[in-house]
Amino acid sequence: MLVVLLGLIQRMKELGLKDPLTGAANWRYFQEVAQRELAIHRRSKTPMTMAYADLDNFKSVNDEFGHEAGDEVLRTTVEVIQAQIRPSDLLARVGGDEFAILLPQADYEGAQVVLLRTRAALAAAFGSNAWPISVSIGAVTFRALPSTVEALVKRADELMYKVKREGKNDLVHETWPAPPTFESAPPG
């Protein structure tokens, strides 16, 4: 009886941490993990990359093909992203068709490779299913970490919306704080 009860408690805990449709982490679990990672990275002074992705024209899939197809798009999106990231990275479904991707210890170059590969893999999956959608991604590699998870997510979300405003289906990735620029002194 105790084993059954412990199994039930574990299952309830998992359900509280995962999105039931896709199996990705939910927002609450993402916040918990991101807060721990912020503390670790502040002590070790290592970079961390935060990406925020939104499916472009997702509503058209639900309208044209039905909600079952929309659910399949979301499950496929999670499967494709999970296949591109490391086990130590974290993917969460944080809204209807919005996803947060935390890449601990990922510098700009390493994160850029993962994000470009993810974007290409999603485009291939969407195309092979004839889904009329794409993905907009905003990402920030933090060299100095913000104090809260909300601040971590905010800049990546702002960059994702910049992609949306400028035509969608792209990736904008920056470093924060921006690396210093060195200008030569004007000739005397």
Instruction: Say which CATH homologous superfamily is assigned.
Output: Reverse transcriptase/Diguanylate cyclase domain
Number of strands: 5
Q: Provide the helix percentage.
A: 40-55%
Rg, alpha carbons: 19 Å
Largest beta-sheet characterization: 5 strands, mixed
Terminal CA distance: 86 Å
Number of domains: 1
Give helix and strand order, one letter per element, not per position: HHEHHEEHEHE
Give me the number of helical elements: 6
The second-level CATH architecture is 2-Layer Sandwich
- List segments where confidence is low: pLDDT < 50 over at least 5 consecutive residues: 4-9
| Order of strands, widest sheet | 2-3-1-4-5
Whole-number mean pLDDT: 89
Content of β-strand = 15-25%
Rough outline = globular
**CATH domain class name:** Alpha Beta
Q: Could you say which structural class the secondary elements and strand pairing correspond to?
A: alpha+beta
Q: What is the CATH topology assignment?
A: Alpha-Beta Plaits
Describe this structure in words.
The chain has a single domain (21-176), classed as Alpha-Beta Plaits, CATH 3.30.70. The chain has 6 helices and 5 strands, in the order ααβααββαβαβ. The protein has helices at residues 2-17, 27-44, 58-65, 67-84, 108-128, 149-165, and strands at residues 48-56, 90-93, 98-104, 134-142, 171-176. The chain has a 5-stranded mixed β-sheet, sandwiched between helices. Helix 3 packs across helix 4 (67-84) and helix 4 (67-84) packs antiparallel against helix 5 (108-128). The termini are far apart. Mean pLDDT is 89; it is low at 4-9.
